[in-house]
Amino acid sequence: MRALVQRASYGAVAVEGETVGEIGRGLVVLLGVRHGDTAQDAEQLAAKCANLRIFPDDAGNMNRSLLDVAGQALVISQFTLYADTRKGRRPSFVDAAPPEVSEPLYRAFCEAVRRCGVKTATGRFGAMMHVTIHNDGPVTLMLESKPPA
């Protein structure tokens, strides 16, 4: 499982012109699921996101977590995080889990973030979405539940 995490001052996602998820200060998490990922991966990665110390403390050092700053999370399903672009000009998505596998794990990740105490908004799985991210810093990190295969 892979999460592209962006510290944000604002994030929103719209489907067909309707805002379906919106947050203030917090993290926008683009989440990819690959073959072999499990509910345990979702739990572990959700806890990592909630506790990742990337928000500034009073001295300006990245020393506070999403929980410390009472931040929010916007989680968007993003199968393209598992694109393989090593050959040719068209990405291959063979490493991405199919929807019947990835949707339950995406939902499990969102629920795990909520259980950590983070107010969580989501996109709409499988929909064409327009995502607005006001990246703060900018701070963008790639997290993985286990080493890449």
Explain what the structure shows.
- The protein has 149 residues and is an alpha/beta fold.
- The chain has one domain: D-tyrosyl-trna(Tyr) Deacylase, Chain: A.
- Helix content is 20%, strand content 38%.
- It is built from two helices and eight strands, in the order βββαβββαββ.
- Strands 1, 2, 3, 6, 7 and 8 form a six-stranded mixed sheet that branches. The chain has a two-stranded antiparallel sheet with strand order 4-5.
- The N and C termini lie close together (11 Å).
Short synopsis of the structure:
This protein is an alpha/beta fold. 20% of the residues lie in helices and 38% in strands.
Attribute tags:
alpha/beta, two-stranded antiparallel sheet, D-tyrosyl-trna(Tyr) Deacylase, Chain: A, 2 helices, 149 residues
What is the fourth-level CATH superfamily? Answer: D-tyrosyl-tRNA(Tyr) deacylase
CATH class: Alpha Beta
Tally of discrete structural domains: 1
Largest sheet: 6 strands, mixed
CATH-level-2 architecture? 3-Layer(bba) Sandwich
Helical segment tally? 2
